[in-house]
Fold this sequence. Notes:
The protein has five helices and no strands. By secondary structure, the protein is an all-alpha fold. It has a domain at 32-65. The radius of gyration is 18 Å and the shape is flat.
Amino acid sequence: xxxxxxxxxxxLRVDLVLEVDDADAVTKAALRLIGEDDGxxxxxxxxxxxxxxxxxxxxxxxxxDPFDLVSQVPGVELQQASWSAERVDxxxxxxxxxxxxxxxxxxxxx
Length: 110
């Protein structure tokens, strides 16, 4: 496929597993960020505060911004992003936590 026929758009998939050592700190940081958002309507603010208070995964999802991940990359502009966070059991030695099949086939290791 020639360069003219290839799309300029790239889907970058990132799968992170984070260990939360201080859930309270994560929750407080999310609440602080919500509190600093002057443009957020009161009903939305109440919903966001409840969500991040009840679930550390929600607090993390609120704190992680895909734009921040790519804003300093020259020559790219974020077009669309979606993300979520969920609690998972993590055993780094389990076969389920190996590289995705696609990663192994492509030979990508980073």
